[in-house]
Design brief:
By secondary structure, the protein is of the alpha+beta class. Helix content is 22%, strand content 30%. The protein binds adenosine-5'-diphosphate.
């Protein structure tokens, strides 16, 4: 059994800085759990406490059914793969793999068996007699993994293991690591600042900010139901546009939202998703629009009768052409909120008079299929898919969903 449990764990460094605040987290046996967040959010600290490289200031940390607060790294049977590979340059691959086994004082025959097994799993058999300097970055990474695997640890820890690799190699190795972990079924705790890595590798992803866990969920759940505007803007690239707005009720009972001086009826799917949306009517809220919620209005076929199909008429500030799609930057008459503002904005920052300030514009981002004629300085008609609107209360927290209404 190799579950991991953080139970109200704190880390306060000797200089008084609280790097981890009240972390409560259960990692399942065999799970691939990714800690993600911007630099300085505390993800390495959390991992180093798990590894036994940092003391725990308060709370309880368990691996399996053992509380490990006072155990040395050696007593924890965990294997850590570091950012720099930390291979011994004067040793061959075989000797590098053998080193941790010698430290464990295993008999020679067992050591050889474990090296053979690990080399096979990792495709290192032809490289066993090479020294690290004769290996590619990806191969060195595999040797570093091999050194962890041979010890047959109950938990694997990886701290930004891919950051030394070029983009192509990163994609390849992240696939290999994920596949390997699933093959072995060993619990994995993985740290990265890269949300794409987190989303593509983790069974679940723990999003951290300023030492606090924001949300833990499977990748798709984070994308679809972010707990707050920080998670919403951290997950997904380019990031979600979050703007100040207000909900209105129309005479026919439909709920509409204001975006750039226009009212858009919310799709019934959106209204139904939220538990108590009616209580937010006439109140300031935050609206989240992922870049993919915009689409190019085809003026020759679409009709403009309903307000929902009225496009925003915008001037293109700049365009990134990515081949099959384009990232379009434009200004709109909205007040944008940064995800980092979550929980920090004072109520006075969010007063409705911001909304009526028609002169305010913000830079927004849309992702659209490539089309001729989209160019810097050009005019564009962008419609909004109102089924893809996210709603947050003005404190930055997601408005409760139907399914979570009971909580
Ligand atoms: P991350 O891995 O998310 O980039 P870290 O866990 O390394 O972040 O650091 C979290 C915070 O704790 C940072 O603000 C960092 O400056 C601070 N920190 C890290 N180590 C120490 C230390 N030994 N003493 C004081 N503060 C530290």
């Amino acid at each position: 059994m190799a579950t991991v449990q953080f139970d109200h764990v704190f880390k306060i460094y000797p200089n008084g800085y609280t790097a981890i605040k009240d972390l409560c987290l259960d990692i399942r046996d065999g799970e691939f759990l990714v800690f993600v967040g911007p630099s300085g959010c505390g993800k390495s600290t959390a991992m180093r406490m798990l590894a036994g490289l940092e003391d725990i200031s308060a709370g309880k940390l368990s691996i399996g059914d053992q509380v490990v607060n006072d155990q040395t790294p050696q007593q924890r049977n965990i294997a850590m793969v570091f950012q720099n590979y930390a291979l011994y340059p004067h040793m061959t691959v075989r000797q590098n793999l053998d080193f941790p086994l010698k430290m464990m004082a295993l008999p020679r025959s067992q050591r050889q068996q474990r090296i053979t097994d690990a080399a096979k799993k990792l495709g290192l058999e032809p490289l066993l007699n090479r020294k690290p300097k004769a290996l590619s970055g990806g191969q060195r990474q595999r040797v570093a993994m091999g050194r962890a695997i041979v010890r047959d640890p109950s938990v694997f820890l990886m701290d930004e293991p891919l950051s030394n690799l070029d983009a192509k190699m990163r994609v390849q190795i992240r696939g290999e690591i994920a596949q390997l972990q699933r093959q072995m079924g060993t619990t994995m705790v993985y740290v990265t600042h890269d949300q794409v890595e987190a989303m593509t590798m983790g069974d679940r992803v723990a999003v951290m900010r300023l030492g606090e866990l924001q949300q833990i969920a499977p990748p798709q759940e984070l994308y679809e139901n972010p707990a707050n505007i920080f998670v919403a803007s951290f997950i997904g690239s380019p990031e979600m546009n979050i703007i100040r707005s207000q909900l209105y009720k129309r005479e026919d009972g439909a709920i509409a939202v204001e975006i750039a001086d226009r009212h858009f009826d919310l799709d019934t799917a959106v209204v139904n998703r939220y538990a108590n949306l009616h209580q937010y009517v006439d109140h300031p809220i935050l609206v989240g629009l992922r870049p993919e919620a915009f689409y190019l209005q085809n003026s020759s076929t679409d009709n403009y009768q309903t307000s929902n199909h009225q496009p925003l008429k915008v001037t293109v500030d700049s365009v990134e052409a990515l081949g099959h799609e384009m990232i379009v930057y434009f200004e709109a008459a909205v007040a944008k909120v940064e995800g980092e503002d979550s929980g920090q904005s004072s109520a006075s920052d969010l007063l409705p008079d911001h909304l009526s300030n028609n002169s305010q514009t913000s830079a927004l981002i849309a992702r659209v299929p490539s089309a001729k004629g989209i160019r810097t300085g050009g005019l564009l008609e962008l419609a909004i898919d109102t089924s893809k609107i996210y709603l947050f209360s003005e404190d930055g927290k997601a408005i409760a969903h139907q399914s979570s209404a009971a909580f």
